[in-house]
Amino acid sequence: MGLINTSGGGKGWNPILPSCILKNKFFLASFFSLVESEMSQEYPYPSHVHAASFVSVKLSSKTNYSMWEEQMMCLLESHDMLGFIDGTIKKEKYRGWNRSDKLVKGWIFGSLSEDVMATVLGLDTANNVWEKLRTTYSIYASPNTTRNIDKTDHLPLCRAIMRGDWEEAGEIFNRDKDALTVKLNVEGHSALHIAIDACKHIQFVENLLKEINPESLLALVTCHKENALHRAAMVDNVKAAKMLVEKNPYLLFSLDNMNNMPIHRAIIGSHETTFQYMLDACMRHITLSQEDGYHNPFEGRHGVRLLTNVINAGLLDVAYDLIKKYPVMATKKVGPYIPLLSIARKGDLYFSGTRYNFYQKFVYANLPTGNNDLSGTNKIQDIENQNTYNGNFETNGWKTYFYYVIQRIYVKFWDVALLKMTHVKHLHEDKLKHNKARMLLKCICKEVGKIDKGIDICRIYGEAFNLAVQNDTPEAVEEIIESFPQAIWTRNSDGYLATQVAIKDRCRKVHGILIRHLPRNKYLVHAFLDDDKNNTLHLAGQLAPIPKLNLVSGAALQMQRELQWFKGVEKFGKPKHKEIKNKKGETPIMVFRREHKELRKEGEAWMKKTADSYTITAALIITIVFAAAITVPGGNDSDTGKAIYSRKPSFIIFVVSDAISLFASTTSLLLFLSILTARYREEDFLYRLPLRLIVGLAMLFLSVSSMMVAFSATLYLTFGQGRAWILIPVATLTCLPIVSFVTLQLPLLVDLISSTYYHGIFAEDQSP
């Protein structure tokens, strides 16, 4: 019995089943079951799984989409079914693929609320259902995340965007609508992102936005979850930002993967213009932030980060206004973001952070600033208004009139100076900035003081206070102590009190403030001991931090400054404090000598090298002027032995200047030699060695100047008789070496005098 029937006209091969199989229904059913089983072996089909055990959240809105998605992904991954939603499992054998796809689709349907189910009814595959849910309920959804893109296909589009060629780009968009939203590079940038980054082709951005519907803008994000407004904020493209906000203001309140809104990105990049626009836009559309999936930039952790970044950017007026409108922003701590910490650590916002010379300090001190209220305008007070004066002209007579005239002259002078003198204008701006910083600091401290829990207050001001002490910012330290008196007892992470930190880290400016706010007994400072039983004298004996040490140039002057600091701290202690030993059995002076051993050697080498150089110069001058003294210009009279030009005024000038040069150079030589032969004890660097160098340099300046005057007088005596005009070039040329020498060496002399006699260490602490 054959399986093939060749009868029936021979019209083809007709497979037939054996009659025994046709008669056996059970075998027939088994046959088809076997075929179906073989077809489905390539596709997983875990029908026994109870999906509700994995997915406990029913998708109902954007609020719980992230949790629902996370649970559903775990279910699919654990049973190798993820390919049915991302499109990677192909339907090569339809029956088996369709069976598994329907299972995944059923799992998804079983985890949806009725309202959400209505949005996906009629979709045929699990992939279509998944994509519809993602684009509808995920804020960060991108319609092209699953599309396999060949980047080379989009090179013409990228080039057209960079050139701003809308004609060519428009043709590409007409051929492929997906090109409007497709990711064009590895960062996930779309055509809109790239066009915004280009900045210069704003018309291209406008045309592009006309082709994109407002809802799609929220889904158009990069791999870092940055929407188009994030990019506009990052590149300071304020024109594009305005277009985007007009198109969809919800963009203002969306987060990227760093939890930054566009307004945060603008201020982090210090893009003031874009930030100001976004700040106004956020306040106009703030009600939108209350909807599901969006965030308020002025509340909670987002508000604290915003205020902190505004302070870091130096926008003190904006920070002040934000605190007035949202005072809670100033009272929170979110990780490293603490507004009080930000304003306290920015030393450049205060006068103590400047390095003005004497003239600049004088101008700064006398500059009027008028109304310094951060919420108002910063204009000089109009004292021409008679109401601004104390007293009345009619009753006080000429005194009030005189005061009135002086005040008018004073204000007019500064008005003209601010208009005509750039450096005065800069100093005025600095003074306004410093005053604003003090007011903002006071405002933040006031708001922090309103916190109910004392431990929260301590945690907020503690870090700010310690950092202000470490950075040597006296304005911040004083304001925090006045607002929170207990702050002076704050310890840092190493367990040191503020006074110990100030002494250990050479915080000269804040030390006096800390001492003033301690109890009356200044000896109390030395009662504080650290874990190694070091008192404050031991801490003062330690080597200063390198940044503080390098504020003084030259190893010898550094050694002198360290000695001055150590001696200054000693004044606050009793004699017994000098003899106290730490755990290592060292007294404070022993610690000082050990810590400064290398610095003392470097200072000795610097002193000897400097003195050696000047010794050679002084010796040469002695040789020259001594020879000139015994060979007078013009010679001597053969009969009397007197100098021929002895009665000439120029000869007298020669003799006096030559003698001064000889005596001064000899003195300087002896002083430099004494430096070379000194014992170089630590105490010698305080006054003895610097004084010798100061006097030696001063004598050397005098000897060089006198030598040049003597030489000029000699030239005039020899060649200038009857030619008075020769004095002009001689005097001019004489000044050249003198000015050169003084210009090159005077800074060292000034530094030596300033460091030795006007160092100002502990000057504010000398009150009884």
From TrEMBL:
Locate the PGG domain: which residues? 605-717
Q: Which Gene3D superfamilies match?
A: Ankyrin repeat-containing domain
Q: Which Pfam families match?
A: PGG (PF13962), Retrotran_gag_3 (PF14244)
Q: Which keywords has UniProt assigned to this entry?
A: Membrane, Transmembrane, Transmembrane helix
Give TM regions: 614-632, 652-673, 693-719, 725-750
Q: Which PANTHER family match?
A: CASKIN (PTHR24177), PGG DOMAIN, RETROTRANSPOSON COPIA-LIKE PROTEIN (PTHR24177:SF467)
What is the protein name stated in its UniProt record? PGG domain-containing protein
Q: Which organism is it from?
A: Lactuca virosa
